[in-house]
Amino acid sequence: METILNITDLSKTYHSAGRTLTVLNNIDFDIAAGSTNAIVGPSGSGKTTLLGLCAGLDRSSSGTVELNGINLSNLTEDQRAQVRNQYVGFIFQNFQLLPTLTALENVMVPLELRNEKNIRLRALDLLDKVGLADRGHHYPSQLSGGEQQRVSLARAFSNAPKILFADEPTGNLDAETSEKVVKLIFDLNKEAGTTLVLVTHDLELAAKTQRIIRIRGGKLVADEKTING
Amino acid sequence: MAMHKFKLTIILLAVMALAACGEKKKPADDNATPQSTKAVKADTSSLKTIVFFGNSLTAGYGLDDPSEAFPGVIRNTIDSLKLPYKVVNAGLSGETTAGGNARIAWLLKQKIDVFLLELGGNDGLRGIPVTETSKNLQSIIDKVKAKYPNVKIVLLGMQVPPNMGADYSNKFKAVYPALAAKNNVSLVPFLLQGVGGVPGLNQADGIHPTAKGAKVAAANVWKVLKGIL
Amino acid sequence: MEINSVNYKRKMNIRWLFNMAWRDSRKNRSRLFLFVSAIVFGIAALVAIYAFKYNVQNDINGQAATLIGADLAISGNRPVDASLTKLLDSLGDDRSNERSFASMAYFPKSKGTRLVQVRALQGNFPYYGSIETTPVQAGTSFKKGQMALVDKTLMLQFNAHTGDSIKIGNSLFLITGVLNKAPGQSGVVAGIAPVVYIPMHYLQQTGLLKIGSRVTYSFYYKFSKPVNMDKLTKKLDPILDKAGMRFETVEGRKESTGRNFGDLSRFLSLVGFVALLLGCVGVASAIHIYVREKIASIAIMRCLGVKASEAFLIYLIQILGIGLIGSVTGAALGTAIQHLLPLIFKDFLPFTISVQISWMAIGQGILLGMIISILFALLPLISVRNISPLNTLRLSFDDVAPRRDPIRWLVYALIVMFIIGFTFLQLDSWLGSMLFTLGILIAFIILAAVASLLMKLVKLLINGSWSYLWRQGFANLYRPNNQTLMLMVSIGLSTMFICILFFIQNLLINQVNLSSSGNQSNMILFDIQTSQKDAVAGLTRKQGLPVIQQVPIVTLRIEQINGKTAADLQKDSTIKIQHSVFAYEYRVTFRDSLSESEKLTDGTWIGKAQPGKDVPVSVEENLAKRANLKPGDKLVFNVQGVQLPAYVSSVRKVNWGKVQTNFQIVFPTGVLEDAPQFQVLLTHVPSNKISAAFQQVIVRNFPNVSIIDLGLVLSVLDELLSKISYVIRFMSAFSIITGIVVLVASVRISKYQRIQESVLLRTLGASRRQIFAITALEYLFLGSLSALTGILIAVGASWLLAKYSFEIPYAVNYWPGVILFFIISILTVIIGLLNSRGVLNKPPLEILRTNA
Q1: Which residues of C touch B103 (CB under 8 A)?
Q2: Is the minimum CB–CB distance between C191 and chain B shorter than 8 Å?
Q3: Per the database record, which ranges form the ABC3 transporter permease C-terminal domain (chain C) (predicted)?
Q4: Domain end among C411, C428, C445
Q5: Which of C64, C198, C258, C571 is most buried, most CB within 10 Å of its CB?
Q6: Which residue in B has a C-alpha nearest to residue C216's C-alpha?
């Protein structure tokens, strides 16, 4: 299997008020292209930090992150931004739609950044896939949480990412909506052949992936295949 | 027939600094040796005293050296002739007949043998009624005579310029011969005879005689004075 | 493999950036409107104030021109020769001739005779202002025949009426009008003799112009196109000087008219500076908050792969757009205000302010609005570069910008340079601009320091024993996302400006009132003999007139200075005494105390002389300089023959700007009482009628006393001064009002800061009253503290301004400051409450949704 994400000896420490706080401690793992993975752990275990590092949103203190063969540690923030734009999709717990853009425009942004063609049609198509074709002109504040997360899903897939990072995608949603959104994530993932990295403390959700990486106190404590794997 | 505007109110106002009216006059820019107004009470030698009592014409306003004024010229003449007279210049710029009338007591503290009265010009330029001028001059003559019955008085005649109007200037001109006749004193018909209207004999201000003009005036006076001495 | 297919050098799509900027601005237009309105108010204030300033400056300059009535006036005491005539005729685009002289005028009807100043006029003089007469048309029509204009007081004095005649020299003139006011009245000459205008054409036949006549020849010029007067007069000066002639320009007259023109222009500069900063406060506070709100969006964009530079540009473009719209709208509004205000207040204005569109003001306003927008947007925007996209994962907005970002300092430097630059446009002095900017910087630092001190203090002080409302209200001052610094600075600075304008206006108006004749002498009686002293004063009082001053004047000369005489001076060139010191006849007075217009600069004042000892005298600063005198120096005076040994006991500074008697040398009492002297009496006559009656009485009782009536002269000046004082009041009132509007706008934009919390509290069941109380407490505290700080800074700043810029005594009424404190505090609370009103009147969810 081809490796899309390679994490080697990754550590992250914060310095605050003269004290050093180690959030991640010597983490090592690979993620295979096209696989679905969950990073689980209790609150404060460092999983969000890990996600941020994997996606190139932050710099590690030591160790390397290699995304699609590109060592993110060597890149500037602007270069990482372009890597993100080309290979990475995001879904956030609190959706993180641009509040001043309509649903459709939110989906269009990654495409526009890449100067692609037929942007509007493709974005509408994506919105249609998440079942929001008729809500394209609405602003995020006019949408429900579930709808917002679906828009963000459409946006995440708009650039046909090689890898999708989802940070507690259902954390702010009720059970029923969660189920719909999760189904969408997996469906779209399957359809596009995208690699999925999911951060959650919801074991039920994690169980839907092929592999579960457990983190506690900044350390990788378990890495196991699920029945799906 | 010319007559000069003497030390007028301008001088007074310069002191009062009417800056608010845009009037800001510098003090006269003459550089001079000290005025030779001899201390009145000084020197009680055998010399007799001639007092020139008058306005700016006597004081020598605007001259490099106040002793260049006509009393100074006459003093030089007296000195060169070795006549036993001491000259006192009691000229005061801007003096009117009323002012002279009030000031005369200050001068009479000292013995006077010959008294030359040169006042009235400022009255004329201010349009003061000629009766008033005449009255004040009379009063001055009376005071001098009362204190020193043997004093010899010379009245120096004045005229006002033609722009004051024929009526006024004729009346004004007549004051001096009338007073001289009435009091039986000597008269210089017009002090500035041959000076007024002659450019070279008048200062740049066109008001006061130059040193050269003062010599002409002194000659006018000397014609009368030499007979008395 | 596509490993290396990442195109790091993706080209920037400018169109997309504009598109994003536009899209981002559409949502919540009302909110955007609020920000734009703050810019609009800031720039409108600036443009209106600048426009008024430029117009008013032109007006006042125009008014100043009426002081001489022409662009250039040349005069001399001699007829001009042919070559000079040629030169004089080559000047200007329109020329007038005037001959003036003293003469005894005769009123046949009342058989009265009086010294007048005859002015024979030819040409269209005056070019500025007019010869104001009753009836009006007489001012120009008198030139058409053998007619005269006669001074109002003179008419009253001789009970003359239009239609009567006046005899000048040999000719009778028909009095066609009463002269109320005329430009070009040169002070004293016009004062000592009332003016009578006649046409030049009839001058010869009066028979007054003969050899020996004392005549002033004047030539008045108007230049149609602006001319560099300085250059022209510099060229003319030696030629005219040789011919014994003088010239006068409007500028020159303005300078000699006293300090009021200078004060006005300094004040207008100050107003311009304040307007500039009001504009800054309005625009900067709006932009600052606006950009801060965009930080979250920027983090998301970064996540999606937007480069820092692109995010930066998107918002820069947006700010430029907002700045442009705000500035243009502001400039339009400002111009509209400038045009409408004088119309609205037309009936209250003592004169008309000309309303010309000032493109200079508009241009500066728009440029300024754009630059301020960009500069103040840059501050938060440059930290965008450092915003980690990680912020999307964590909702923390800790200070992401490292404290020592060098670019940040560059922006600060740019802002300071910009303020200095624009201040220079107002002040025209680099040093002044830097000092002003430094002052603002210090004010800013003080306010910021007070704000951070407040935050620390409140944090320390708050404890659980306080009621919830108090705790919540005060905690708002220091909690994250607080508005303490922003509001402290904008309220504090605005209050400071308002207060400074109040104080300085107050000081200047007092100064102007001092110079206007309303409280000053406008009639001088002199040559009063000592024996007449009490009688004249008594008569003055009996007429109901005040004896403003009555002083004895003694004439004397200086004979020796430290043993040196004029003779020594000629021998020894190293003596630092000017020759004129010995030649001048000094008019001195004696009294036991300093007058209001005097101030000691050296030595001690001694009011009474000890008999038999040297006399302690006080000399005026300039004389001290010319004669090289300092306290302790020995002098010998010659008091009309009597030698009087004296010494310099003090040096005085004299304010020569008032109509009153001032002296180069002042003696103590007890020395000169018996010396020959005369008295001068100063009084104020309220009207021509009273003046005429008073003059008649004085002339009848004391024919030797001469009178200078400055009424006519001062009335021209008064009109100007009242205009200046009005302009100062108008400009400061206008600036103060706009200052308050800008202040309101900058508090208003804090509206969204507290919405989330208020809604949350509302959701948790907080009553209307509780939310009001919390908001009120926060704003009351902010408002009052910043107002207080601002006012205190203003007291210091206005003191400095008064002392060093205006050089006037600092005597300020502090009550406006106290009142301003309450107004600003209450106003802040009211706006704060208005801000939260929206929250209270709508269901919480609706607000959360529209403002999320």
Answers
A1: 640, 676
A2: yes
A3: 270-389, 730-844
A4: C428
A5: C198
A6: B206
Point out the residue among C7, C304, C308 whose CB comes nearest to the CB of A109: C304
Is B4 among the residues known to form the active site? no
C445 lies in some domain: no
Q: Chains with 3 or more CB pairs closer than 8 angstroms to A?
A: C
Enter the ipTM.
0.80
Strand partners, C643: C638
In this structure, the answer to whether residues C35 and C95 fall within a common structural domain is no
Using an 8 Å CB-CB cutoff, list chain A residues near C11: 115
Task: Provide the whole-model pTM.
Answer: 0.67
Q: What is the dihedral of CA C291, C297, C298, C299, to 10 degrees?
A: 130
Cβ-defined contact of C580 to B164 (cutoff 8 Å): no
C659 assigned to some structural domain: yes
Closest CB to A81: pick one of C28, C302, C394: C302
Tell me the torsion sign for CA atoms C176, C181, C184, C190. positive
Q: Chain B window 52-81: which residues touch C at a Cβ cutoff of 8 Å? A: 59, 61, 64-66
Q: Are residue C42 and residue C80 in the same domain, yes or no?
A: no
Is C296's Cβ below 8 Å from some Cβ in B?
no
Query: Rounded CA gap, C826 and C821, in Å?
Result: 9
Q: What's the number of domains chain C is made of?
A: 3
Which residue does chain C place closest to A167, by CA atoms?
C393
Residue C210 lies in a domain: yes
Angle value at C-alpha B53, between B51 and B59, nearest 5 degrees: 105
- Asked if C557 and B88 come within 8 Å (Cβ–Cβ), the reply is no
Partner-chain contact A109 C306, CB within 8 Å:
yes
Angle of CA points C407, C409, C410, to nearest 5°: 60
CB C25 within 8 A of CB C722: no
Give B182→chain C minimum CA distance, Å: 22
C497: left (phi over 0), alpha (psi -120 to 50) or beta: alpha
User: Are the Cβ atoms of B21 and C714 closer than 8 angstroms?
Assistant: yes
Alpha-carbon gap, residue C519 to C531, rounded angstroms: 29
pLDDT average per 10 residues of sequence, chain C (852 residues) = 56 80 77 78 82 79 81 86 88 90 91 90 88 89 92 88 93 92 61 85 91 86 86 88 83 71 76 77 77 78 81 86 89 86 67 74 86 82 72 53 69 86 80 86 89 84 75 75 79 88 85 68 85 92 89 88 82 78 85 85 90 90 88 89 88 74 88 87 87 88 84 72 78 80 78 71 74 84 90 91 82 86 91 79 62 48
In a domain, C487, yes or no: no
For CA atoms C69, C684, C113, C702, give the dihedral sign. Answer: negative
Residue C38 sits in the same domain as residue C106: no
Report the pLDDT value the prediction gives residue C502, as an integer from 0 to 100: 86
What range does the domain containing C96 cover?
Answer: 72-226
Largest CA distance in chain A: 54
In angstroms, the CA C618 to CA A31 distance is 100
Neighbours of B (≥3 Cβ pairs closer than 8 A)? Answer: C
Residues C690, C564 share a domain: yes
Annotated active-site residue B208? The verdict is: yes
Instruction: Please check whether residue C95 is in contact with residue C220, taking contact to mean a CB–CB distance below 8 angstroms.
Output: yes
Q: Which of C226, C253, C271 is the last residue of a domain?
A: C226
Give the alpha-carbon dihedral of A133, A135, A140, A144, to 10 degrees.
Answer: -100
CB C122 within 8 A of CB C219: no
Please check whether residues C288 and C415 belong to one and the same domain. yes
User: Based on the domain organization, do C102 and C28 belong to the same domain?
Assistant: no
Domain shared by C42 and C113, yes or no? no
Candidates C24, C393, C752: best to mutate against A (most CBs of A within 10 A) is C393
Pair C217, C309 in one domain: no
- Residues in chain C closer than 8 A to A77 (CB atoms): 302, 308
Annotated active-site residue B205? The verdict is yes
